[in-house]
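Input sequence (389 aa), recorded before submission:
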Amino acid sequence: MPTTIAGFDRIGEENAFAVLARATELSEQGRDIINLGIGQPDFKTPDHIVEAAIKALRDGHHGYTPATGILPLREAVSADIEKGSGYAPDPDTVLIVPGGKVTMFMAILMFGEPGTDILYPDPGFPIYRSMIEFTGARPVPVPIREENDFAFSADETLSLIAEKTRLLILNSPANPTGGVTPRTEIEKLVDGLSQHPHTAVMSDEIYAHMTYDGIEHVSLMEFESLRDRLILLNGWSKTYAMTGWRMGYSVWPASLVNKARKLAVNAWSCVNAPAQYAGLAALTGPQNAVQEMLTEFDLRRKIVVDGLNKLPGISCRTPHGAFYAFPNITETGWKAKSLASALLEDAGIAVIGGPDFGILGEGYIRLSYANSAENIERALGRFADFLST
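Predicted structure, token format:
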């Protein structure tokens, strides 16, 4: 049997799951492991959402649905987008997908091929680069810099767009940095993109509901000039603590939505029917659980930032979105992945090394504060002990 299959030797993965596997293995050996590695809320899915799925099963929703998703859910997605952006997309341009990653997979597959460029944030979600390389396109990193408070620079981003740039990937609020790009910078970028009509845009807004300090999330759906080439990525995993439900959605330009539908038909037929009714309940039901989770994340964020900045050789900017801190560890003398490995093996703290998020991630580690305040404080204590030895 051949050991090389075209394209597959170029594909990468998300190392957070490898760290999770090792942390689980150590836990099963009896070690006390505090997991600040995986980006997963530690809350349960709100009860009314769970009950909606159970009711859907009992009501007989056991079969296929349209490949794009049930109409009431697509209408609810459109209404929810309107609340945040002032614009309600046509429900026929909404596609319900099995998890947020699927949207980036489809978008990059559509636009990536040898001889083309795709721009992506670095440090950024590792699947962006992995999928770009898989398609044979050239991955072009857009630097996400600490001195810019981990927001992207419109000028720097625009300077990287070339004639062969087919797709620009944006992410705010951002993984792994927690950075939120301000409106002024986004407006400058949108204005500059008018000079590059050949470049499509995928906006990853999976953390749209997770901002702090009164800072607003600015959805690219607001900007009419982009809508004919904008792909919006969002979903339920982070906002509603529904990671295991595998529920996401995307909004596509009218010229692309049928192509996306065909990919859906070829790849997964449709999303789990009862899960779609759960997603409907999430968007149309009470939102108090979302606010309660966000309040708790905010408390943990302050504990993390304060604690990290007290550690020798560590400095940490205050993240304004998502549930990640991305401290600078260069003064410790450690390389990031070596430090992450030692923290897990020797101190029982699971974190992710910055290089797992891109070539510009060296000198940083990512901590998820989607864990209890008590566990975060225990982890910070262990971190301090580790650095003092």
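Checked by second reader. The mean pLDDT is 96.
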